[in-house]
Fold:
Amino acid sequence: MTEGRLKHFGWGREGEGMTDAEAAAALARYRGLFDVEHFHQVTPPSLSEIELRPPSLSPPAALAACCSTGTYDRVAHTYGKSFSDYARGLLGRYDNAPDVVAYPRNETEAAAILDWAGGAQAALIPFGGGSSVVGGVEPRLDAAAHKAAITLDLRHMNRVLEIDRTSRAARIEAGVFGPALEDQLRPHALTLRHFPQSFEYSTLGGWIATRSGGHFATLYTHIDDLVESLRVVTPLGLLETRRLPGSGAGPSPDRLLIGSEGILGVITQAWMRLQDRPRFRAAGAVRFADFFAAARAVRAIAQAGLYPANCRILDPQEAFNTGAADGSAAILVLAFESGDHPLDTWFGRALECCADHGGSPESTGANNGHRDGAAGLWRSAFIRMPYAREHLVRRAIIADTFETAITWERFEGFHDTVKAATEAAIREVTGRPGQVTCRFTHVYPDGPAPYFTFHALGRHGDLLAQWRAIKSAASDALIGAGGTITHHHAVGRDHRPWYDREVPDLFAAALRAAKHALDPQGLLNPGVLLGP
Ligand SMILES: Cc1cc2nc3c(=O)[nH]c(=O)nc-3n(C[C@H](O)[C@H](O)[C@H](O)COP(=O)(O)OP(=O)(O)OC[C@H]3O[C@@H](n4cnc5c(N)ncnc54)[C@H](O)[C@@H]3O)c2cc1C
Structure:
């Protein structure tokens, strides 16, 4: 991670971003897609041009040293990184800025900030890296219940505190960013190996709070399986779970807290299960003439118990957009890794599964095959992708993604329904065709997690409404066809209407009761997961 402040508008740190050549290539592709010569460009306001209402709360003397009411801090904590966040940032709309941003340096300070929030009737928003794409960190208050908003940013709680080499686990503070976490584990030859695409600018606590999905396409897909125990500060005190490799003692307290998206407490530490760093790899890409044939090959691999680390299909258009192929073939990016044993046998067997469904390998599984050919081209594009959005939104290009999961027997019809509904919404809302592509991010023996990307040319002034209409149509289609509203991007505030349709009413009532038991004043993250 380079030095410098995180951008208040955009991905990464100030001074980072796409190169001119990368931006030019992306825009040339969009000019071709929408058949236009130029894009009408709007520039977001600079920090000094943004007007905020005065804060309605000031920190008590004992906490003043770790709190800020400065413009940068309040602006940079108003939004996450969703399309709607960028669209509002572009207009300089920061109505929901928190009144105070608190940066606790330890658990005692975090607990004191929670106490202060309770006394002041202020909503408290836990904040990790702020990479939420579902409105998870935006203080949207219930005016009747909250007088102000305090955002609690855990970035200074960023240390690996203890390593248990024997059990291969570590006690880690929740505010650590991905690269700093791996830097601290590397000298011990250990790794968490949880790499969401947002890895550089998201935190361990955020991953646990949102049940994030990492780069492992099979087996250890979600962070859930890597959590051994948790420490959580709630408005009623500290909650700590027992370190165990497994337990059958009733419903799991960890599983209640993992994915609670900051509504039950602030995760301050976790014991995490670690792995040896991989020494053996077998990786490469496989071409298929047909996306569904590739899906059938992936099902065979997933059901063979081979557990590849990477097993991502890109449909032909997605492969073209990322430079991995020419648009005539679907690409399967396939990789195995181990800290213990060579993987040629596993890779060879996976290639047999592919051949059964018409797949032809680009390579035979070299140790560094994940960096070569189509696999390498896709990998480079994947790492740089987050920097594109700030360029696109300025030009009214609506580019967004959504992900879901579905069982294999429904996959093909489900895919066609969701794609068609999203394409139709783009045409209706923008008056011209757009593009919807699909890849798999994770696969299970009983079904894939399809990840859709859509591209539409919007209109400045209407961008937010246009995006919302397309997103709603896609979400309706997902839920209507039996999928989940999210496989790993969380629920936040933006997915709530569809989450409400997905979960059984009695479960929602039980979750509400759990929230009331831990947070009786309703301070924590109002509007996330549960309605008022
Ligand atoms: C470019 C990009 C790529 C992404 N790729 C992936 C991906 O590959 N896989 C994936 O799963 N997600 C991905 N995401 C979504 C996002 O990065 C994840 O949801 C991530 O886990 C959020 O971590 P964070 O530290 O940024 O949390 P934040 O965005 O700060 O917070 C997310 C939610 O968790 C709560 N929270 C944060 N920290 C704590 C804590 N310590 N205690 C309690 N609650 C807390 C917040 O209140 C909020 O509701 C991506 C996002 C972007 C912008």
The two ends are 39 Å apart (CA to CA). The chain has a mean pLDDT of 95.
